[in-house]
Specification:
The chain has about 950 residues and is mainly beta. Mean pLDDT is about 85; it is low at about 1-5, about 5-25, about 105-115 and about 760-780. It holds the Pfam family OMP_b-brl_3.
Amino acid sequence: MKKCLSLLLSILAFLCNPSGYAQNNHRIKGYVADSAKIAVKDANVILISDKDTLHTTTDQDGYFSFKKVKGGSFSLKVSSIGYHDFTGNYSLNQEIKHIQLKRDARMLKEVVIKGKPNPMRIMQDTIEYNAAAFQVLEGDNMADLLKQLPGLEVDDEYNVTTMGKRMYKLRVNGKDFFTSNVKDFIARLPAEIVAKIQVIDDYGDQANFTGIKIAEPIKLLNIVTKPGMNKGRFGNGGVNGGTNNQFGIGGNLNLWKDTRQSSGELSYNTSNNGAGTAQAMAGGISHADEINKNMRYGINYNLGRNRNAFANEQAIETLNPLGTFYQKNLSTGETWNNNHHFNTNFSYKSKKTFFDGNVMVSYNNSENMSSSVNNQWGVIKQDLENVNRSTNTSPSINAGINFSRILKNKKSSLSGNFGISSSSNHSDQYISTNTRYYDKVTELLVKDSLLNRNLFTDNNNQSFNFGFNYSLGLKKPKDTLARQSLNLSYNLSVGRNTSTVQTYVIDQLSKLPAFVDSLSTDYTSVSVNQTISLGYGYSSNKMRYNFGVSASPTMLSSDDLHLGQKIRSNTLNYSPRINLSKTISKSKTITLNYNGSNRNPNINQLQPVRNTENLQNIVIGNPNLRPSFSHNVNATYNYVAAKTGISLQTGLNFNLTQHEIVTNVVLIPDTLNSLKQETRFENTNGNYRLGSNYALSIPFKKNKYSISWSGGVETSNRAVFINNNKRFSKGINISQQLNTMFTSKKVSAGARVSYRFSSNNNVLNENPIVNVLGQVNGAVFYHTHNYLADLNGSLRFKYLTFNTRMNYSFSTNRGDRVSDNFKNVQRLALSLSAMGRIKKTYYIDIKTSKTINTGYALTNTNPFIVHASLSKRFLKDQSLSFSISANDLLNQGNNLERFISGSSIVDTRTNQATRVFTARLSYNISNFGGKGFRVDPD
């Protein structure tokens, strides 16, 4: 009886006070990251409650968890080497936000990392490289480090690509860095200040705030500096003079202290480039800073003034169903350009509110004078001489705001955006064209025709966009750090374009202009694009996905006021919305994205008026064009082995376009039994592209040796209209590349072999072919093979450095009727350079190269180039230097190249002075964290 009574009392106690027992089963979860929002692994986490003290560490992705926490409240203490400790007080029912650790420069100064560092780490949306695992020498810049990283490529112009995607945006420690342009800084920042390099799939600041990541991301490069290196001064200044009327003076300075960034630049340079005068003047100033911990602003202004003379020649072979066209073109001229650009931005971010806005204003005006001589033979024999003088003025203004608000229940959010833009272009143009027609059989001159005309063009564009997204937070899943929601979004974009063209033909006898009604227009087009989407989203530490559906109605109207013609078209497209990112394990991630987008025809493609700027290629718009709709799918898989450093990055992409806007090239006979070209525009279906790319990297001996294999395979189907006949061409493009690399403090060497094949390289529907008077377009698809082998090495002693390189390339084009002059091109380039130091402050630099060219349609030359320089450095840190240099001592410079453009093979040479002697006095500033760093020029 007593036992039964005791049991009954226990049950009553449980019913009256269930919370006391529930406390035994509380689970606490959290996430630890640094100021750059990158996970901190192996951080110590101590939980102290009134009844217990528990300890754990964060995992590879920065997450921690405690089970069976007792008591009503508790405190957390988080610590990790190199960071300030974090302490916070919480209740059991309180949600733990992301814990952010701030770097402690003083602690890490004494830390020496021993053992083998992991070169790569893969996380959700991020691939991270550990700079300590790669060879960084004194004087290396950021680009030297990036070139060693698996999956990244850096070209001679400092363009950075990863898995075929160009990287434009740069951040340092997770924050915008001056212009935020990758190209502007990777050659100027020292590699020695870098702790980590991160390649991030960036969905934008607004998406990072709300956690709703739906759109396709861009690739962002984030540099994490070593402790104490988040501040510095860098820049340079100098004056130079030399032969070819050469003179230059200028300087730039950047002041950086974490979020406070100020910069200024002013320069002037002039010289004779071989074709005439080349002048460039540039100036700019910018400043960005935090008002408080939540608000930030930025402002910058840039101006430029350029004058450039040019002279070039081209040899072109074009294949067409009618036969082969040959052209040789010589052009000379001079351009002047002035531009001004002003930009200001403001942002606010708190726990519940995000807001940013920006205003951009620009003004450009330019003048152009050019003359060209074009000789054609083959199917058409014609000579054309053209003189073109024009002035252009283009002002524009753009403004936009984005905002987000976390609602009261902390699960839901509301976001919106608004933007306006206005731009215009006014052009006055004088064109004089002299055409000489020849008999097709005898090739004797039949007629000499001269046409002079003035064109006055005004284009105006205004646009407005608005959008919002409402995210309804659903009941939390079992994972307390996960989030699920229903998302409703709407986007509206309205654009209005007007174009007015007045054409006057100048009478040859009276020299008076006469208005030509048939070649003039007054045209307006209006487009309205809408997208409404509904989807479901889920995100956790290892999985994020969004699934939904979108409807995109589009209205396009065009009014030709001159002809009194009005056309309206309406389209409606449906498409799914897919975004998936999953961390399979600590070293494996997979992503999948789909997006659909409308593209409206531009006003030049719509207006049904003959554009006669080029009399041999008259362009006529099509007012019945419909907007195109593109379906894009891409997927990635990334893997890295933590112990060995072996990494694999793969990608798969697919593109299908409905109602794609393509050109219809029509060759029509003229009154002299010759041919001329008209280009029109059509909508077509059937264009698609399916491709994959991959990069495998295998390091050895702590990254001293590495082998990498990268490449891609693509198949495509492209449509071309020739003489109103639609033609499809299916083709395959293949690229393969094998690299080996060895790096040490004294010796580095590399070897590369690559092969590229293309059986479908007609880009007629993607880009203009060649801006050449009389250029004839075709529909023949070449089979192009490119082979390349490259060897390079560097040997470094205390006072002397040697660099050598051998590069061989071979290219062959195969197709019906390809002439021998355009079939095969070979180039062998050998180079050797040496730089030595004498008595600590004197430096001598000698560079030599020999290039052997064969197969070009233009005159083949085999230049032997010799550069030499002698410099003296001053001051304790050698930041002041005086140098004398000689460029191309033997005056054998040759700017010769070949490229495939559509159905044309183009050889081009640009004439410019290459033998130049220069004297220069310069001062360089490169100080970070209170320490000077040398950055050697490439």
